[in-house]
């Protein structure tokens, strides 16, 4: 019994080691045959048949075992799966050869209750005739399946009887459970009662401080924030209501190109009314930084240059912008026409795209129908190919069965060949290992010899006496053969010289920095003086401008009344009076006299205004000269002189440096103040 269990356990172990994906079946069977020979098994061929059969009919046996685990064997271990596969193989293929008695002995040798449970499930007539048969038909041909199931149905009552016998024996020989021993209590002496403890004095608790009232009050800052939030929310809601009320006021305006142009022509031109700019004068003195001072000076110089460039540009002959405005109007009209044509094109393009989309959809439907027909044809072809492939697979399986049967016959020859090959390999490995060991032994001997020599040398060096004290000459060079070698004394002297040179360089740098600071301060002071002069001039210019604006206000009203307009108005009045009053009346003479007086008064007023404007222009020219003297370079001054000469028609003076012109008309400082024009 023990030998049978050991043999079947060997088969189960080999099945556990088998991996169909990585290993070859022929090599695996050869290895297992060699293992069985080494273990000196008597019925070697029987065990090899079981192993080969379990591998060959694995899908057939897996159907039964997996169904057992899913239904009756839910509490069984998965590690015992190969045990049930072996029992299933014996029941299907080896039951008639073994007989019922031998089959019963094998079951007794293994775990009897578990195997009985499996056999009760497998030899159920209902299971065999229904789902097991159907599952096997999917894997193998129906003829083979019928040949396997008929003997199983024939053996079914006998196997069921055998299972019942095993169950009875197990119940009969069940060991009676012994009574549980109940331990008795120890007879111990009763302890003395515990002494009553004296209660400790409870300490007097101090009164707790009351909670301050501020902890439960909401802080004022939070209340203010909530009030602000509520106000903001109300404002937002009001704005939202207004937006909802007037949301589609400008959503889709109807734009008519021709009417728009007509309305623009009929509309009277709006009068431009400029707002007064009240300049705030900062009387507080501000401390300026160096960068701000320089920046302001550059800014004022740039302003002067811009003003000069503007005047020069006007003198060269700048055009009136009316032509440009007319051209701009025409271009806008063209743009509007283009926009309208583009909108029409877009509309037509939208219609065209809609039509194209309908045609494309129809084409897409047709293509889909064609594709569906092609797919149906492809499915039919694929089904035909699958049927042919299944037939080929069946033929290949039959060939494999024949090959396996032939391989069983040639197992002994394969074993002999394997043994010979393994012996040869073992001899070669042993020879190689001996050679490697000999080499390693020689290498270790050489290492040991070298170590001994080194130890002897070190000991000899240790025995030699060493001189501890050594005289050092600081003036002597070491003579190591390095570039720039020197003694310690020379090195110290050189270091001292370097320190002195560094100190001198630092002092020079310090002097240079102080000199640069002084120059910078002088430059800043000069720029500040220039800025102050420029600001004074700008203030004067602003005051002059304010006076001009005050004077211009009554003049603007007279300018608006043009000569032609007044003449036309007078003529209209005359015509209306002539139409209303008959000729020969005395009133006509008085009216004509009043009109002549009015015209003479207007001409006198105009003469006064022209004189006033001329005086203003002269004062501005003088002011401009002062600015030029304070800020402009020589080239800018020359440009300005040429421009004014072109305006006034006078010749410009040549600007000379101060060192060349010392005396002129009794004025020694004439070279410093260059004159722009002779006529002004």
TrEMBL record:
Keyword tags: Coiled coil
Superkingdom of this protein's organism: Eukaryota
Residue span of region Disordered: 573-601
InterPro entries: CFAP99
Coiled-coil segments: 364-431
PANTHER family the record matches: CILIA- AND FLAGELLA-ASSOCIATED PROTEIN 99
Protein name: Cilia and flagella associated protein 99
Name of the gene this protein is made from: CFAP99
